[in-house]
Specification:
With 250 residues, the chain is of the alpha/beta class. It has a single domain (4-236), classed as Spore Coat Polysaccharide Biosynthesis Protein SpsA, Chain A (Alpha-Beta Complex), CATH 3.90.550. Helices cover 41% and strands 20% of the residues. It has an eight-stranded mixed β-sheet, with helices on both faces. It is globular, with a radius of gyration of 17 Å.
Length: 250
């Protein structure tokens, strides 16, 4: 893997992009410390970390402030709105969106630097794996990663949403994330990005919790919140709230 100096060299030190990490939250005090620790271990540190909170009642804001992040308070209107709110306040040239229950490999931001060395790249995503996952969970995520990669290779960029990045200018040009979509909003953003540049998949894995699968069951989560909502999105460009209103698992 490239050394941090090479990451800067790939884009030029004078033109090296400032990286803003954005974390949308709602009652995530349990998971944030591990995420922040994985950010502290980055070979290339972020320039700022913004937590876009949505009315948490479990001390999420206190945990985030104690870690030295910028906390943006807001109403509970979903992760898409939180990501947009964080992006609007960010000062970086690139936006790295991370879910609160993720664990990041130490070379994540370094690899974002390297990807942005190609001026044609406007955004990208990572692979994903279950943190402390059982064999069936690892198998499910293996298939999901293969699907995401195949769709992207075939010219239909796919973004599961756990961890992804965009140049700030590109994100603004695209109008940010559609807040009317309760599911598939990150897929939608990746697909729309084809009009302005390349969306790439980084060859690294971010770990995430299995809380939704374990709370609501594998069958419901896969068939309703992933398969059915994705098919409907591709067919109509929508994921109606009246059909898909996923309750957060905590």
């Amino acid at each position: 893997m490239a050394e941090p100096a090479r990451a800067h060299a790939a884009v030029g030190r004078d033109a090296a992009p400032r990286i803003s990490v954005i974390v949308p939250t709602w009652n995530e005090a349990k998971y944030l410390p591990a995420l922040f620790e994985s950010l502290r271990r980055q070979t290339v540190p972020p320039d700022e970390v913004i937590v876009a909170d949505s009315g948490s009642s479990d001390g999420t804001g206190d945990v985030a402030r104690a870690a030295g992040t910028t906390v943006l308070e807001g109403e509970r209107r979903g992760p898409g709105e939180g990501r947009n709110r964080g992006a609007a306040a960010a000062t970086g040239d690139a936006l790295l969106f991370v879910d609160a229950d993720c664990l990041l490999p130490p070379n994540l931001i370094e690899d974002v630097f390297l990807a942005l060395g190609d001026p044609a790249v406007v955004g990208g995503a990572t692979g994903f794996a279950p943190a402390s996952g059982r064999w069936i969970e690892r198998s499910l995520f293996y298939l999901a990663n293969a699907y995401q990669r195949a769709m992207t290779i075939w010219g239909i960029p796919h973004n599961a949403g756990y961890c992804f990045f965009f140049r700030t200018a590109a994100f603004e040009t695209l109008g940010g994330i559609r807040e009317d979509l309760v599911l598939n909003e990150t897929h939608d953003l990746a697909i729309r990005s084809r009009s302005i540049g390349r969306f790439v998949l980084l060859p690294i894995i971010v770990e995430t919790s299995m809380r939704r699968f374990r709370t609501y069951g594998y069958l419901r989560t896969i068939l309703q919140e992933y398969v059915a909502s994705t098919i409907l999105y591709y067919a109509t460009g929508r994921s109606p709230r009246e059909l898909f209103r996923p309750a957060p698992a905590r």
